[in-house]
User: Fold these one by one.
Assistant:
Number 1:
Amino acid sequence: FFEARAQTAKLAALQNYEQRPVMFADTIEKNCLRDDGNCEGPVATAEEAPRKGPLPLTIIVDPDGNGHYPDLASAIDAAAPDWIIELKPGKYEVPSELTRNVQIVGQPDRSLVELNVPLADLTKGLTVHQNLKLSNLTLLAPLTIADGQTSLTNVALKATPNTVGIDVIKGALDAEKLFISGGKIGIQLEHDHTSFHRHHLKSTRIEAQTETGLRIGDYAILDAEGLEITNAKFGLLAVGNADFAIADGRFIGNTHTGLEARVMASGLILRSLFQENGAFPLVLGSERQMTVVDTIIRDGAIELVGQQDRAFRKFNVIENPK
């Protein structure tokens, strides 16, 4: 059943591709489009490409000219919605606005593939309006998720000064093995009050932000496992009606607080460590439920603001509380 469904999806992608006005005209070798798999021969023309049978579902981009395309922008323009764009080691320029579904794969060593936007858009960064999948690469510009589902796997993002590394305005973020360094805010989860998305972070490290490592805005929802935030001013800041659950978190060396929940935020903190986070590593100033279980606090204390101690239900395994 699954093989048949996958084959149906591939055929549908090919049919959609053949209806596109721009084909692999100047880059796909003619005989690569034949059923015999022989890839030697002249380059196909735009008229020939649609008639040569199934096309590859993976596009190879190589700056040295050994792939289907030497630049990323051309590959994005040519790819069907569910095709994979594979990048060989090198530095690439990605368009600052992505308005279609894109899936880009780098190399297992993510440092070998670097993505950046045009120099004129460096402060603005990359803005995504549809679904985006990035894996095994390094992004050297801030990322704004304006809509759609964005999935990041084994991605390093180096934010430019005074920017938000990943700003989720609308849509959803799903990340695993994500590393973000620099910028003013590492990740900012916002909510447009028209749709609800649950964001997921797994094995994510955020470090060296001048203001906040992770900011969860009004009505944003986050599930995080293996989250580490270090060397920011505020480690994690939850405001408004934010809702979060964090398991196996590490908040270390943040100068003001490790985690602060304000107003109506609610959350669960499980099996986490707070160390060297200023005078108050954990500040609970929310009027809603806050649950902290099996968590260690070193070099600081818990601050309960106002009547919030009523909602502070559980806390155990505390070492050296002040």
Number 2:
Amino acid sequence: MNETGGPHSTSPWARAASASRIDPAWGWLLAGAALQLVANGRWVLALATWLAPVGWLVFLDRTRPRVGVPAALSVFVLVEFVAWRGLVPAPGMLYYLIVGTYAVVYFLPFLLYRLLASRVPGFAATLVFPCAWVGLEFAFQQWVTPYGSWFSIAYTQPGFLPLLQLASFAGSAGISFVIAWFAAVAAYTLRPGAGAGAG
């Protein structure tokens, strides 16, 4: 029997080790950020565009909103500052204002996913993110920004023939929807207990 006398009690050393253990969710944030650097902007790897949102979504799924949302938003904005450097023709602080605005707007679908997807039953929850992405992207490009669809993720897939055929009747929004939906489905399957809760 240890000092506290309980059969399930732990030593102060064990409690300290447990408290210092890094939450694996932060690994998903790191993965999302690393992939985001080459998902759109100065460096583009087409596959990264599909995979980067998965890291952000899984991280948001596995953290409390008051912790996960500010952390993800901060990292997302910083990554975009790096990814678009040299491409946006704006000097000094104007560059950070433009890219920061775009980053916040393009983070909103992730925020809506975190706030709403858990309230939608079953597989239908996977539609929250792509619908939010396409809706916000369309509204922002049509009525807010003078740069049009310049930042759209649809332009990262020039060599993917099936998506180009989709664009012939669904436009760039169709490509964005498919990419975002893929990420949402992947995040859904990675939720703890997703298989048991399906039905």
Number 3:
Amino acid sequence: MINSYLGNIKYKILITYLVIAAFTFWIATVPLNTLNAFDVLWWLDIPFHIFGGFIFANIGYALLYNNLSSPTDVATVLNKNNQKISFCIFVFVLIVGIVWEIYEFAMYYYGYVVKWGGAADTMIDVGNDILGAVIVCYNKFKFTWLK
């Protein structure tokens, strides 16, 4: 009974983060983009990318956590492999950030948006995505593998 309840909690957490990510995507693309908020408030892009990195790092963590079969597996992996889990989270966030930047460039290339920030903006955005992942990894693992 308790194992099925814990299993349901794991998936509810993952679904919650996916809903938050979808809502954030909608906020960024529909009302804020329609109002040209990212052109008027140049700094608005920074917190959105940090928050996106934060959310997708949590999604990556939840995906890793959901693939573990029992609570003993969770304890073993979380206590002994913080470096591997952090690396997987960073790679996951990096891939999502790169895919997002390709999406932004495609929107510019095909004429759906008027301006593209350029290569420097792309690098800053990916760096902010990674910063969000660093916040999650620090809070989850306190970077014990760096000591």
